[in-house]
């Protein structure tokens, strides 16, 4: 199976790793996972974003540590859709916050006479205080990358 997903991955954290793990689980041993890494933030927030080269390196390190490297394709994307609208994929993995984006992708795919993607929504990973783990909270020094309150 061919699976896709994307994000900024500004601070690679436990929540992101859940998305990666789910994508590779869905793809299966012989499948591939396309990972789109945005050039900059995709939300309207203007938070600091590390250079894309550093973010990609962190992702590659995680993929290597989990044995995913040979099934991953990483590309830099410049919008919230990336190649998911026109690419040859079977499924898309999303967080609750990007579920609507996946629905928009499927609308565009249908308009382009492509089959819709199976949308796999992965719940947010919660920090020890019960709130979702996010790069913003980590940068604000509220929590660490594993979700422990600082």
Mean pLDDT: 94
Q: What class do helices, strands and sheet pairing give? A: alpha/beta
Number of helices: 4
Strand content: 15-25%
As for the CATH topology, it is: Rossmann fold
Rg from alpha-carbon coordinates: 15 Å
Uncertain segments are none
Give the distance, in angstroms, between the N- and C-terminal Cα atoms: 40 Å
Strands of the widest sheet, in order across it, are 3-2-1-4-5
Morphology call: globular
CATH superfamily membership: HUPs
Order of helices and strands: EHEHEEHEH
> How many runs of DSSP E, i.e. beta strands?
5
**CATH architecture title:** 3-Layer(aba) Sandwich
Please describe the biggest sheet, giving its number of strands, its sense, and whether it closes into a barrel.
Answer: 5 strands, parallel
What's the CATH class, please? Alpha Beta
How many structural domains? 1
Question: Helix coverage percent of residues?
Answer: 25-40%
